[in-house]
Amino acid sequence: MSVTRRCGHDVLRGAPVWLGLDRVIEAVESPAPPAPGPWLAPGFVDLQVNGFAGVDYNDPDVTLEGIARSLQALFSTGVTRLLPTVITGAPADMMAAVRKLAEAHRQLPEGEAIAGIHMEGPHISPEDGPRGAHPAQWVRPPDLDEFERMQEAAEGLIRLVTLAPEWPQATRYIEALVSRGVTVAIGHTAATGEQIREAVRAGASVSTHLGNGAHMMLPRHPNYIWEQLAEDRLMAGFIVDGIHLPACFLKVALRAKGVDRSFVVTDATAPAGCPPGRYRLGEQEVELTPENRVVLAGQNRLAGSALRMDRGVENLMKLAGLNLAQAVAMATVNPARAIRLEGRQRGLEAGEAGDLVELEFEADPPRLLVRRTWLAGKLVFEA
Predict the structure, then answer these.
(1) Which of 119, 209, 225, 324 has its Cα between 20 and 30 A from that of 102?
(2) Are 22 and 3 in contact (CB under 8 A)?
(3) 267 catalytically annotated
(4) pLDDT of residue 36
């Protein structure tokens, strides 16, 4: 592959830059202002994608062609690395889903974008509210033997596991996963403050979509949202579609965690990038409404989102008042640090992965347009 030369304005550093782009960034130069060309940023990283473009990653019968199509659609949103997310389901269905995702990672030209797999469940709270849209009949306690079987089917790709730390087995389970290099997240939980602190001592380091997957009514204090906001050892993901979280919560949460300990996820499901209608999330039917809400069919319970990552970055500016550099950091280097993703934690620096997104940006109101996307030095999308 020949080295691609790109010039523009580095979003994260706020300075003009010349890049030599191959599988890794070969060279970084700083020309004199004014900055030539477009805005340049590392490719976006999404740690929670249940599906996209009509494709459900939880479907045990999902095809390689479908996964390839969904990845191509994600490239158009600026995403270059993602964790396809498998939620609570029947053991055989979850096993089939992770096996197919591992095959896609290994065989598809687009498969390099799969940076790992996020296993969201099945070891979550069985209570209505914290359980969210996960099917109740398949919620079960942590089981290391089951994880080992799942990880074998996934060819070692399970990189992030979300669980509720109130299970009696949780502490040992967290310690075992962390010792295997897996990042453990707290989510879909009704845990006490002490149970959350015990999970963090055991090695949990992330909060999954904080502020969601919770009871409709909580004690004023203490409660498990405050506890996680106050815990500086936890990074936190937020779904920024303007539906899952109101602007007031998002602003306060980002002030509590700090932008450096926060990242944006889409929690996208199969309807993302599609017209309103009925789709699947594992064994369940979901509906994308004309208002862009994804709900369990026939109910009002949210079941993931239809968010694109480029719109998520926009919304961080619109809803939380972040600047462009802060919003892009929450979609790039911050999620990469949360899962210790190699080659993606330092921004546009020599030696980092050749993942790049070229953007047009209008400040008032904030508007982002993805013009081109590169994955490991290869152009994978051009508007």
Answers:
(1) 209
(2) yes
(3) yes
(4) 62
Which residue matches tokens 């009871």?
215
Query: CA nearest 78: which of 279, 374, 287, 376?
Result: 374
Query: What gap in Å lies between CA 114 and CA 111, rounded to an integer?
Result: 6
**pLDDT tens, 43-93?**
999 999 999 999 999 999 999 999 999 999 999 999 999 999 999 999 999
72 within a domain of the structure (yes/no): yes
| Domain-embedded: residue 48 | yes
Q: What is the model's pTM? A: 0.97
Structural domain for 337, as ranges: 42-347
How many independent structural domains does the chain possess?
1
Q: Which of 56, 267, 310, 355 is catalytic?
A: 267
Partner residues linked to 161 by β-bridges: 119, 184
Q: Which two tokens stand for residue 350?
A: 């020599």
Peptide bond into 366 cis (omega under 30): no
Question: Environment class of residue 369 by beta-carbon count within 10 Å: exposed (0-12), middle (13-18) or buried (19+)?
Answer: middle
Q: Does residue 281 form part of some domain?
A: yes
Phi, psi at 294, each rounded to 5°: -105, 120
Separation between Cα atoms, residue 64 and residue 50, nearest integer Å: 15
CA count, 13 A, side-chain hemisphere, 6: 28
Mean pLDDT of all residues belonging to the chain: 96
DSSP label at 353?
B
User: Domain containing 148 — which CATH number?
Assistant: 3.20.20.140
* Whole-Å CA distances, 304 to 6, 69, 89, 270, 279: 36, 20, 15, 9, 12
